[in-house]
Design brief:
The protein is of the alpha/beta class. It folds into two domains: about 1-150, 2-Layer Sandwich (Nucleotidyltransferase, domain 5), CATH 3.30.420; about 195-380, ATPase, nucleotide binding domain (Nucleotidyltransferase, domain 5, 2-Layer Sandwich), CATH 3.30.420.40. It has helices at about 60-70, 105-115, 125-135, 155-160, 165-170, 180-195, 245-255, 260-265, 270-275, 280-290, 295-315, 325-330, 335-340, 355-360, 385-395, and strands spanning about 1-10, 10-20, 25-30, 40-45, 50-55, 85-90, 100-105, 140-145, 200-205, 210-215, 220-225, 320-325, 365, 375-380. Strand 3 (about 25-30) and strand 4 (about 40-45) form a beta hairpin. The longest helix is centred in the last third of the chain and has 25 residues, at about 295-315. The structure holds adenosine monophosphate. Adenosine monophosphate binds next to helix 10 and helix 12.
């Protein structure tokens, strides 16, 4: 059975085609610069990578281009579009009602349209990507997989903010959490490695956007991102959690409006804001190694905040069985992983620094010290596969 996974953004449409008999992605690519000048990349294992300019004015033209590539005699991997059994669509936000992955019918789309205010950047393009796919593939199942749904079982004490309750009732202001599909995937893998589905696990998704989640018995009980992905640990350009009064104070002292203050905290903060070098962790690490004090400070702040959140989740869960690192930084930055795990032996977290420094990239690795009470794993995330799996399960 072949499942197509689609992740539609405002100017891009990423895709992967999975063969669910072998659990492998057999083609993947990205239509970029939709509505501008259009570039498509397409990769299939065993075939040369393909990249070309292609005019796609909208998501519909982009998905038509994808289907043409997938069925192309030389570049493609399927004989006809009919071989695609279902499409899984990634949505960042499922609001409070879409609590699990779901077949997308009129009611689900109406609800998603009603909550675009909560998710103005990702919501509208994801809906438009779905509509385009539905138009060109009307007779198969389309499933929505929501980053927020992993957090649907959190208790009120974890998701209600201590602000006037009416703000929750009237505007649905609460912690939603994001990156849920990634945390769900790596937490399930860690539970499998531990051989304990009731395990207490802290998963650190550290990439350009970063979040940390606490999982017990396969369910998320808390997470660092909140009403938006701005909360939690510092990121490439986002500040993460700060005293909320900083926002209104910036507005006053810089004489700027809400949008400008928001841009400062979302686009000019984090690694970029502190280091003044880059939002990319590799650039910041290189600058720090070359003696740039602010770059070093940016990394120290990142490690300090990651540790703080891990510690608070261990306290919430009354223990921890595994700590997991994933995403661009978590999977690749050995020094950062070592810095996070340093001086955590009191919690039972001890890393084998040699294994951590030499484990191959792109593979699952157990980097815990021999005899450590807590297992520390590096687990490459695979959100697209998780989306394909949910789509398969809802299609069968
Ligand atoms: P992601 O958003 O998951 O793609 O992660 C992007 C982040 O991962 C960027 O900050 C990159 O600098 C970081 N990253 C990717 N590869 C490496 C690497 N080899 N070493 C350190 N950081 C890396």
């Amino acid at each position: 059975m072949k499942i197509l996974v689609v992740n539609a953004g405002s100017s891009s449409l990423k895709y992967q085609l999975f063969d669910m008999d072998t659990n492998a992605a057999i083609a993947k690519g990205n239509c970029e610069r939709i509505g501008i000048d259009g570039v498509v990349t397409h990769k299939c294992p065993g075939k040369p990578d393909y990249k070309t300019e292609a005019a796609f004015p909208d998501h519909r033209a982009a998905i038509e281009c994808v289907l043409k590539l997938l069925t192309d005699k030389e570049l493609g991997v399927i004989g006809s579009v009919d071989e695609i059994s279902a499409v899984g669509h990634r949505f960042a936000h499922g609001g409070e009602k879409l609590r699990a992955s779901a077949a997308l019918g009129a009611d689900e789309i109406k609800y998603l349209e009603s909550i675009v205010g909560l998710n103005p950047l990702h919501g509208p393009p994801a809906i438009s990507g779905f509509k385009a796919c539905k138009e060109v593939m009307p007779n198969i199942n389309h499933v929505g997989v929501f980053d927020t749904s992993y957090y649907s079982d959190m208790e009120e004490k974890a998701y209600i903010y201590p602000i006037p309750y009416e703000l929750y009732e009237d505007y649905r202001i609460r912690r939603y959490g994001f990156h849920g599909t990634s945390h769900r995937y790596v937490a399930a893998k860690a539970a499998e490695l531990l051989g304990n589905k009731n395990a207490k696990i802290v998963t650190c998704h550290l990439g350009n956007g970063s979040s940390i989640t606490a999982t017990v018995n396969g369910k998320a009980i808390d997470t660092s991102m909140g009403f938006t992905p701005q909360d939690g640990v510092p990121m490439g350009t986002r500040s993460g959690a700060i005293d909320p009064t900083v926002v209104t104070y910036i507005q006053k002292v810089k004489n700027v409006g809400a949008e400008e203050a928001d841009a400062i905290l979302n686009k000019k903060s984090g690694l970029l804001g502190v280091s003044g070098v880059s939002s990319d962790c590799r650039d910041v690490s290189e600058a720090a190694e070359n003696g740039n004090a602010r770059a070093k400070l940016a990394l120290d702040i990142l490690v300090h905040n990651i540790k703080k959140i891990i510690g608070s989740y261990v306290a919430e869960m009354n223990g921890v069985d595994a700590l997991v690192f994933t995403a661009g930084i978590g999977e690749n930055d050995r020094e950062l992983r070592a810095a996070v795990c340093k001086d955590m032996s009191w919690l039972g977290i001890e890393m084998d620094e040699n294994v951590n420094a030499t484990c191959p990239r792109g593979e699952i690795a157990d980097v815990s010290a021999k005899g450590a009470k807590v297992k520390t794993y590096v687990i490459p995330t695979n959100e697209e596969y998780m989306i394909a799996l949910d789509t398969l399960n809802l299609t069968k």
